[in-house]
Structures are given as structure tokens and as C-alpha cells.
Amino acid sequence: MRTRQRRTIDLLTPEEVADQLKVSVFTVRRWINQDKLPAYRVGRAWRISADELSAWLKNRQNRGS
């Protein structure tokens, strides 16, 4: 019998992202509104995938080099 493994997606709030990046939550929301940071609308709230945040940061690091 095969068992399915479910992959959980770690979703962060804009506040959590701001804390991690040491920027204001307003900056994070601005990046979301300008489509600079990939985010998902869940009801009235925004959520950012931890994996996509890591990829976004790596992409920005590579552009700056």
C-alpha cells in the first residue's frame, strides 16, 4: 500500500518577513503591491511562501553581484 506524503507549505506574514529582513512591514507591503515580492492573498491577509522568499532573496543577491 502506498502512502501519500503531504508537503506542507510554510507561509509567512508580512510582519514575519519584515522581522527576518530587518525592514519595516510597510516596505514588505510595498514590495507586494508593486509585484516585486511574490505573495498570496488569503482572505484579506497576505502570505509569503518561505521557499519563494528564499528564491527571491537569492535572485536579488545574484542581480547585485
What does the model show?
The chain is an alpha+beta fold and 65 residues long. The protein has one domain: Multidrug-efflux Transporter Regulator, Chain: A, Domain 2 (Orthogonal Bundle), CATH 1.10.1660. 49% of the residues lie in helices and 15% in strands. It contains three helices and three strands. A three-stranded antiparallel beta sheet has the order 1-3-2. Helix 1 packs across helix 2. The radius of gyration is 14 Å and the shape is globular.
What's the short version?
The chain is an alpha+beta fold and 65 residues long. It has one domain (11-64): Multidrug-efflux Transporter Regulator, Chain: A, Domain 2, CATH 1.10.1660. It is 49% helix and 15% strand.
The level-1 CATH class: Mainly Alpha
Low-pLDDT regions? none
| Shape by Cα distribution | globular
> Biggest sheet, in brief?
3 strands, antiparallel
Terminal Cα span: 50 Å
Number of helices: 3
Global mean pLDDT? 92
CATH topology: Multidrug-efflux Transporter Regulator, Chain: A, Domain 2
How much helix is in the residues?
40-55%
Largest sheet strand order? 1-3-2
User: Based on helices, strands and strand pairing, what is the structural class?
Assistant: alpha+beta
> What number of domains?
1
Q: How many E-type strands?
A: 3
Q: In the CATH classification, which architecture applies?
A: Orthogonal Bundle
